[in-house]
Structure formats: C-alpha cells, structure tokens
Amino acid sequence: MKEKISNQIRGCLRLRLTGAAPERFFNLCRTNRIEVWDLQCKKSGYEFSVGLKDFYRIRPYVRKAGVRVRIAGRRGLPFFLQRNRRRKGYAAGILVFFGILFFMSRFLWAISVTGNYTISDDSFLHYLDSQEIRYGILKHKVDCDALEENIRSSFPEIIWVSARISGTQLLIRVKENDGVPVKEHEEPEPSDLVADMPGTVTRMIVRQGRPQVRIGDQVETGQILVSGRIPIYDDSEKLVKENQVCADADIYARTFSGYQEKLSKFRTVRAYSGRERQGLGLRLGPVDFVWMLPWDTEYNWQTMVTERQLCLFDDFYFPVWISRIQKKEYILYEQFLTNEEVLAKKENIHQEKLQNFLKKGVPIIENNVKIQDKGSYYEIQGEFVLEQKIGTRQRILYEPPEPVAENENQQ
After folding, report:
1. What pLDDT is stored for residue 203 in this prediction?
2. What contacts 173, CB < 8 A, 6 or more positions away?
3. What is the average pLDDT across 132-149?
4. d(Cα 209, Cα 153) in Å, to the nearest integer?
5. CB under 8 Å to 124, separation ≥6 — which residues?
6. Which of 209-236 are b and which e, b meaning 16 or more Cβ less than 10 Å from the residue's Cβ?
7. Closest by alpha carbon to 331, among 361, 364, 302?
8. What is d(CA 266, CA 337) in angstroms, rounded to the nearest whole number?
9. Strand 210-211, strand 224-227: pairing
10. Cα(272)–Cα(267) distance, rounded to whole angstroms?
11. Is 109 exposed, middle or buried (0-12, 13-18, 19+ CB in 10 A)?
C-alpha cells in the first residue's frame, strides 16, 4: 500500500515493449536495479510500469537489447499537476481541502472507552464532561497524565487506566478490580446477633459471644441468637462483672421464601403490513438532517437506524455522522395465550426466581410452583425451602446497674 502511494506521488509511466529480445531487456533492468511492476503479456507485446526517474535510465538498455519502448499511459501527481496547471480554482479547492483537514485535526472528535464492565459508557462520558473533556475540544487542552490520575481517584474499582490521543480520537483503556473493594472499618462496638428472619437452626459456628439457641430450635425475627454480654463469676458463682463484645457467628437456618406473580391472559402481537420506507440522516455536530418522505405518523412504525461516524485512516474522525434509516409498518392486536405459552411463562418466572438464589450461593432444599386461574388473569405462586445464613448485629443498649439495698450497705 505504501509503495503504491509513493509511486503515485513520484509519478510513473505505463510502457509497451516490442522487439525480439524482451527477456534480455528485463534481465538488464534487474541487474541495474531498475524496478518494473505490473508486467502483462499481450498480443502487441509486453506492458509494464516503471518509475518516472527510472524511465530515463532504461534508454541504453533499450538500445542494447534491440527493443522498442513506447509510452502507453502517464500516472501520478506530477502528470496530474501538469494537466491541471491552468485550473486555479481546482488547485485552490485542493488547498482549501487540506487546510480544513489540518484545522479539524487539532480537535477531538471521538472518545473510545474499553475494558469497562461495571461502569457504563454513559457514566464515563458524563464524568469526562464534568472534567470539561468533550467532543470538539482542542487536543492540547487534554492532559492525559492528569486524566489518568483523576479517573483512578474518582473510580475506586479501577486499578489501571491508560489515556492517549490518536489522530482525533481519545483512547481510554481501563482495568477493573475483580472483587469489591473492602473498606477498613473501625473497631466494632458491642452488639448482639439477632435473627433477621424466622427459621429452624440447622448449623452454627460461634466465634465470639454467648449462644442463645441450639441446632433444631425454631427462631423468630428479632430473637437474640448470640448475645454480646459475657458474664464473669467468681468461685462462689457470684456475678462479678459483665463484659460486652461484638457477637460474631455463622448461623444457618431452614427458611421459607415465597412469591406471587400476576400473568395476563393476553399477549400483544406485532403484525407487519409489508410497507417499508428508507431514509438517510446526516448529523453535523449538534445539527441533524433527516430525509424520509412522506413523513406519516398515523401508523405504528418500527425504526432501525444504522449510524456511522466519518473516519479517515482508522483514527482521524470528523464531526460528521451518516445514518441509514429503515422503517417498517406494523399493527398491534391482542391474542389469547395458549396453554403451552402459559406453562412456558410460568416456568421462566420460576426459573428466574430460582437463579437469583443460586447466584447468591443459597442452597435450595425444595421448590414448588403452581398456577391458578383468577378470571381475568393467572396467578403464579412459588415457594422455596432454603438453607441460608441468618443474623444481623444489633447494638447493646446501656442498662444502668441495679440499686443496692440499704441493709446491705449497713452491713
């Protein structure tokens, strides 16, 4: 590709070779490092291309090989300028074109973000806009090093970021942390571990605190599972003092979870009439132009837009977007669900609820689902028997000490 562009800039000639010893001529050119290309054998002889400078070097080899060479065509920039040397308007248009290219190359017309999964592109663009980095900004106003530091400080989940400008495009590559960043907490205050849902205790591991339940006990919401009060007795089993700690334990219980979902007996069907319309769109910066006639809004139309930004050489973008618009007419009507569709929807809803528990790593012991006809709609009822971790911390409230009897003080 580079050689073709170089030959067009320097200029080349298309030559037609006739004679009795063309092979000798080509051998002489190869020996003297004269490059020829696009060699073709025709009835009238051989045709090949040669550079403009090498054309003057082949004359002695033409005589030596006893062949004749004629010019069949002239190509390249030098011949183009010679043919159009009197067309001042044409030359001025070319200069204006390259001047516009030079002027547009000083601005930023595209922003590309890759490697982001938890952070959406819209969030990134909104953040860049708050940093006054947007489409149409001068490239020298973008400090890539400062931008990298600001992104790392504004998004803790990003552990690596790279920002650079290529052509008229800002390229941002990020790498997010695989896990959720853990914040450092202060020393936990004394608390109890209480049940946040009812269930039957199946297994427990107590690391700190005094357990208040055993395996097999039925617990209710708000019941203390592990107490943060640790009583200390002396040898006579008299309460000396009471330490307060932060209860810490893993307690699992057999729990129940259910849901109810309404399902309509009808479904909306979209039927296409076969009428289609094609249109074009042009966006120049903030200005939009749409060509689609006639513009009829009385019917329902499905619109599909394919947009592409004007680009030169992979990374030289312009603030010009060309879009292809395709519209299809359709009609909406209601249709009764079949028994197979009702069962399929019921199964999809139940599986979606099931997957939510599986994603959280909650073991499922049993799961049941049924559907009831409520007249105007169906009601889907599901129930899950789970084994999940229960317990939430609850701060220990301060209790004043019990008053001491007078007779005890006298003694």
Report:
1. 93
2. 113, 114, 115, 161, 162, 163
3. 90
4. 39
5. 113, 116, 172
6. bebbbeeeeebeeeebbbbbbeeeeeee
7. 302
8. 6
9. antiparallel
10. 16
11. buried
Percent of the chain scoring above 70 in pLDDT: 92
- The Cα–Cα gap between 349 and 329 comes to 31
Tokens of 3: 């050689």
CB within 8 Å of 76: residues ≥ 6 apart: 7, 8, 9, 10, 11, 12, 52
pTM of the predicted protein model:
0.52
Amino acid at residue number 284: L
**271 has a pLDDT exceeding 80:** yes
* DSSP-derived 3-state class of residue 385: strand
Query: CA 74, 79, 85, 90 torsion: positive or negative?
Result: positive
Tokens (6 digits) for 175 = 């790498």
Determine contact, residues 189/173, Cβ cutoff 8 Å: no
Average pLDDT, the chain: 86
Please name which of 234, 249, 241, 161 lies closest in space to residue 203, comparing C-alpha atoms.
Answer: 249
Q: Write out pLDDT tens, residues 10-53.
A: 888 889 988 888 889 889 888 888 888 888 888 878 899 998 88
Identify the residue whose tokens are 């199964």.
347
Closest listed residue to residue 44, CA positions, set 75, 12, 13, 68: 68
C-beta separation of 365 from 230 below 8 A: no
Question: Could you read off the pLDDT of 346-377 as tens digits, one per residue?
Answer: 999 999 999 998 888 889 999 999 999 988 89
Q: What is the DSSP letter of 288?
A: E
317-146-136 Cα angle (round to 5) = 25
How far apart are the C-alpha atoms of 283 and 109, rounded to whole Å? 13
Using CA atoms, how far residue 26 sits from 11, 14, 162, 316, 406, in Å, is: 21, 15, 53, 42, 129
How many C-beta atoms lie closer than 10 Å to residue 275's C-beta?
12
Residues 279, 303: Cα–Cα separation, whole Å: 10
| Residue 319 preceded by cis peptide, ω within 30 | no
pLDDT value at residue 410:
46
Q: Would the pLDDT of 399 be above 70?
A: no
